[in-house]
Amino acid sequence: MDHYIGTLWRRTHPSTYGADMTISPLVDAPTLISELGRFIPLDASVLLPGQKGDPDAAFMDAHLPGAQRFDIDVFADPESPLPHTVPGAARFARLMGALGASEESPIVFYDGRGSVGACRGWWLARLFGHRNARILDGGLDAWVKAGGPVEHGRAVAPDATVFRCRPRYALLAGADDVRHALERPDALVLDARSGARFAATVPEPRPGVRGGHMPGARSMDWTRLVDRNGCFLPRTGLRHLLAAAEDRAVIASCGSGLTAATIVAGLAVAGYGEAALYDGSWAEWGSDPDAPVVTGGDEHE
C-alpha cells in the first residue's frame, strides 16, 4: 500500500501557478463539440451513496465519441480500507497509459450528468502532474442537449502509451493537515456534504461513522455550486459563495473524497486558485474515535 503524508498547501498569488491556472478547468458542450478531436474523453461517472444505477452499463448505452471509461474505484488504492483512496503513482500511470493518455495528452473528464466524478478525475490528474485536463460542464446530458453525437457499445481499445507522473502531493491533505488548518486563521476547511449531515440531523450513510463535523469547518454543500442541470454557476456566483476562501489556504473535505473535488474545481473556476483535498474525508475522520466532532449549526456563509 502507498502511504502519503499530506502537506498543507500554502496559497500563493495565482500568477505563480503557471499559465494553466489562468484557464478555467471547465469546457462547455458547444466548445467541446467543435474541438473534440483534440481531447481524449474519459467517462468518470460515479454513484454517490443512495444513488442507483450502473455507470458501466450507462457508458455502453451512450458515450462521447472515442471515450474510455475512467472508473473512480479502479483509479484507487485497492488495499486501502477507505473508499476510492488515491492510488500510488505507479498504478495511476499504468492505468492512464492503458487509456492511451500521456501526461501531456489533452483530456476531458465527464459524467453522465453533472460533474462529480469528472471533478475527482480532473483533481487526480492534476495531483499526478497532468496540466491539460478539463471538465465537461454539465456532462453527457449537456453534450446531447447541444447536439453532440454519441457512440454505443464497448469502447475501442486505444494504443497504450506512457504516462509519466510528476506528483504534486501538496494538493493531497491528510488528517494531520486538517487538524493544523483548523487551528489557523489563514486556513479554511470546507465541507462539501449536505448541511443536514454537517449538523448531524440525519445519519451518515456509512455504518460506524459518526455524524457531525470538524470543529471550525464550514459547510459548503457541493450542490450549491451547480445549477439544476448540473452545470457550475457563473464565476461571479461562485466567487460570492466561496468568498471566505480568498487569501486563505483551503482544504476541501466531504464524505469520501468525491464531492470535495467539486469544491476544488469551483475554487479554480472562481479564480481563487488551487486547494488541497482531504482524501480520507469524513469516512476517515468520523470513524476515528479520537478525532474531535461537533454537531449542530449549518455553518455555510
From TrEMBL:
Chain ranges of the Rhodanese domain: 48-152, 183-294
InterPro entries: Rhodanese-like_dom, Rhodanese-like_dom_sf, Thiosulphate_STrfase_CS, TST/MPST-like
Family matches, as SUPFAM superfamilies: Rhodanese/Cell cycle control phosphatase
UniProt-listed Gene3D superfamilies: Rhodanese-like domain (3.40.250.10)
GO terms of molecular function: thiosulfate-cyanide sulfurtransferase activity
Domain of life: Bacteria
A Pfam family reported for this protein in Swiss-Prot or TrEMBL: Rhodanese
Record key words, sorted: Repeat, Transferase
Protein name: Sulfurtransferase
